Each structure stands twice: as C-alpha cells, then as structure tokens.
Amino acid sequence: MADKQISLPAKLINGGIAGIVGVTCVFPIDLAKTRLQNQQNGSRLYTSMSDCLIKTIRSEGYFGMYRGAAVNLTLVTPEKAIKLAANDFFRHHLSKDGKLTLVKEMLAGCGAGTCQVVITTPMEMLKIQLQDAGRLAAQRKLMPETVAAGSVEIKSPTAMQITRQLLREKGIAGLYKGLGATLLRDVPFSIIYFPLFANLNNLGKKGGEGPAPFYVSFVSGCVAGSTAAVAVNPVDVIKTRLQSLNRASTEDTYSGVTDCIRKILRNEGPSAFLKGAYCRALVIAPLFGIAQVVYFLGVGEYILSFLPKKDN
C-alpha cells in the first residue's frame, strides 16, 4: 500500500514545527558535541559530555548552553521542511512505476540529503562558530599555554557579525565552507535514515492499513536517527573541524577533507573520528523521533484545516 499523501504546505509545517521543538530540547547536547569534536590533543578542556555541560554552566551560565540556538531555530524550519518534503517527493515519484524497493528508498534519501545542504551548510557554519566561542574563551583562562603570544582576546561574535565578515572577505562561498564535507555527511545519513525508518515503522502498522501508532513512529525515528548519526560521525568530525574559523595556537588547521583526515589520523589516531558520537546520537534520536511523531500526527494538516478553503 502506498504511503498516505500529504500536501506540500502541510509537510513544510510539520517539518518546521518538529525542527523547532526538537532543537529546543537537545541543543545543549549539540553544543557539547561541537566542543568535544573541536578540541585536539594538547588542548583538551573537556573529558566528557557531562563535564562539558557542567563547565559551560559554570563559566557561561545556563544560557551559555544555548549559544548559537537562535541560528538553528531560525534555519532549522526550512532545513527540516526541505529534508522531509524532498524525501516524500522522491519516494512518491520513485514508487509510481511499482513497488518502492530498498534501492529506491535509498535513492529518495540521497535526494533529500542533497537538497537540504542548501540550508544546512550556512546554518552549521554559523552555529559552530557561536558554539565553539565559549570553548576558546575558556581555554584562554584555564589553558593560557594554548594561546598565541601577543594575541588579543576577542569578544564572542554574533551571527550577524560572522555573516557580514564572511560575505565581506569571501563572498557567498564563505558561508558554504565545508559544503563537500556536509554532503559527505548528510547524503549517507539520509540514505541510511529514511529507508531504515520506513521499514521499522512498517513493522508497527496494525493490520498493514493506515499509519503506525505515534509511539511506533517515535521509536522508529529514534532508532533510525541514532544509527545513522553514529554511522556518519567520522565525517561530522571532519566537517566540524573544517568549518571552525578560530582555534587555539596549538591546534591544527586544515586545507580540505583529505588533509583533515591525514592530520587527525597522524596526531590523534582513529578514535578521534568517534569524538562526540554518543552526543550526536543523543541529539539526533529525539530530534527525528519528534519529527516523525509531528509528521504522522498530522499537525500541519490540523493547522491548515482552520484556513478558509477556496471555492472552485
């Protein structure tokens, strides 16, 4: 049986609401993930996710855990809307000629992942600078040996300041630094996530008719999301390192994906590619679980039902 058809406006509303709710819930964990991934040997400030969050609250206050949240909350709506709507679009068209096979499901996920990077790359670029600013400030105080001699402390930038600086110095390409790494992360993620979610969700359908219960959609989203997140975490580490504009004097700089891989392997070992993996799983699991619940409960359709209908 084909999946139930949902209008494009409803898909966009569902994806947007799910993204805002999900990001609000898990953003502190995402901040810890970014800071853990960015710290290198010789400049390790945090030992774990909990240690990072505790030190962040002590040095920056409770709202320090939400550095960069405004960027995410602003751009996550179009990002999640594009991802969910694009996946549904590709699944619908790929199933016109017959059964939606696993290969076709993976192709639909590939299309969704490719479409979303238009929003994801600049969103991540800005978010990472804001999230990591607190780590660099803490290093100046607690680990002065990592600070270059004669350097001047810079106040934490705002998203608009970073955007203006990037546009002024590098043009629109500045906001899309790390695009290749983002594609290498998001396309495989979607190839894994969407087919896995669809098949897990189908297992929970009662009698094979209609949508699965909301709790099945939630669990399926969590399992599929965490699995895909851990699978692509090595590329997420590379993407985070490439998109970070500022770093301590003792930390490596990278010219591209291959240079980043080589230096991480040489200086930190293979285990460095798993930095922040459990944080990322804890972020993605509820994020996509919430997304699928909102999607399958039909929140967007309910909101649209209050709008006046056009007469034919």
Automatic annotation (TrEMBL):
PROSITE patterns: SOLCAR. Signal peptide: none annotated. It is found in: Mitochondrion inner membrane. PANTHER family: MITOCHONDRIAL 2-OXODICARBOXYLATE CARRIER 1-RELATED, MITOCHONDRIAL GLUTAMATE CARRIER 1. One of its GO terms (cellular component) is mitochondrial inner membrane. Belongs to the mitochondrial carrier (TC 2.A.29) family. This is Mitochondrial glutamate carrier 1. It comes from Cyprinodon variegatus. One of its GO terms (biological process) is malate-aspartate shuttle. It is a multi-pass membrane protein. Solcar repeats lie at residues 6-93, 100-203, 212-301. Mitochondrial glutamate/H(+) symporter. Responsible for the transport of glutamate from the cytosol into the mitochondrial matrix with the concomitant import of a proton. Plays a role in the control of glucose-stimulated insulin secretion. The keyword tRNA-binding does not apply.
